[in-house]
Amino acid sequence: xxxxxxxxxxxxxxxxxxxxxxxxxxxxxxxxxxxxxxxxxxxxxxxxxxxxxxxxxxxxxxxxxxxxxxxxxxxxxxxxxxxxxxxxxxxxxxxxxxxxxxxxxxxxxxxxxxxxxxxxxxxxxxxxxxxxxxxxxxxxxxxxxxxxxxxxxxxxxxxxxxxxxxxxxxxxxxxxxxxxxxxxxxxxxxxxxxxxxxxxxxxxxxxxxxxxxxxxxxxxxxxxxxxxxxxxxxxxxxxxxxxxxxxxxxxxxxxxxxxxxxxxxxxxxxxxxxx
Amino acid sequence: xxxxxxxxxxxxxxxxxxxxxxxxxxxxxxxxxxxxxxxxxxxxxxxxxxxxxxxxxxxxxxxxxxxxxxxxxxxxxxxxxxxxxxxxxxxxxxxxxxxxxxxxxxxxxxxxxxxxxxxxxxxxxxxxxxxxxxxxxxxxxxxxxxxxxxxxxxxxxxxxxxxxxxxxxxxxxxxxx
Lengths: 275, 177
Known about the structure:
Chain A is α+β, with helices and mostly antiparallel strands. Chain A has three domains: 5-55; 72-110; 117-275, Thrombin, subunit H (Beta Barrel). Chain A has helices at residues 5-27, 32-58, 68-111; strands spanning 117-125, 133-136, 149-151, 156-163, 168-172, 179-184, 190-195, 202-206, 219-222, 234-242, 251-256, 265-269. A six-stranded antiparallel β-barrel of chain A has the order 1-2-5-4-3-12. A six-stranded antiparallel barrel of chain A has the order 6-7-8-11-10-9. In chain A, strand 4 (156-163) and strand 5 (168-172) form a beta hairpin. Chain A is extended. Chain B is globular. The longest helix of chain B has 37 residues, at 131-167. Chain B is 77% helix and 0% strand. By secondary structure, chain B is mostly helical.
């Protein structure tokens, strides 16, 4: 099959390494510097420690010649204590994680106490780069219907577009086909926020009234117009206002309150349709 | 019997690819762009097993994807079906024995598939036209698909020839002329 099999395998390995490097570097942010620092430290620190040790020894640090037996016994004792502490730490971490999940549910419930809600987990995300739908683990058996509003702890997620017995498909607000009529909370001006291809965490606010004063940091929430989303659910904050030569074409960038990359728990509002 | 078995295997491998795409590649992305394994898969079926199977599996799998996760039923079905048909056309005109031609075929079909889907979305769903952002994502997706093709090329060749022997026994020798 190959003229040179070894060359072929080497090519594959190099490509895999390139893919991994691309994935790592394109997905990491400024923290990558500290990551590189860690790697560099592995090479530098042992030698640095050696030098420090030598320096201490020369400058008359005689603790090195302490009684070896006492040190050994102490070391054993410390190791034992350490393992005990590690064990309890692990237990605490499990409790902490459990506590956080429960808190998340309670917070969500309290925040939207006026609505009847059903909690759900995100079980599948979109496979395409050009759309943004999610699948949640509740369906018509749990009372979910189409066009019900889906929210998360920090704000609006989207609405249900189709339902099976045990799952529901949700079109998120960052989907390119989604448009939500909303209001700027400080001025009560009505705008439309739409998903963009450019960024999965920002929305584009269009149809801004010509006389409206739009400022960075203004909060955007649903207006209740359109019949799907109830009024007053937080969507995000305006991060940038782009002025064009024609004032009717100006638009604003809205940073969504919900982090869609880390979205795991959502609530489905069940009484919004009747409202 | 062999044909039935290979069809079952194709369906199983589709499911495996689906889980890889929706779990692994939902976070293993290049600049937040996922590859599209389904185009590679359906193109290979069209290339090695012929246009009938390419079209049928393209439509069925595309329809499945639309039902499970898509916004509008039909778009992926039609486009993947076309890619399956396109496979046989490519097979008749180009050699499958070279890594470069397979890569070019996959780049072309990924581009054709995504552009087709995007146009459909603009017409049917009224999606905003964002040409620059679309081209940027598409180029990264094509590069990602190419890198994956380089890695799985030996697998494509081996399984492809096995499929070809089962479904295209009459013209098995044509590739040597």
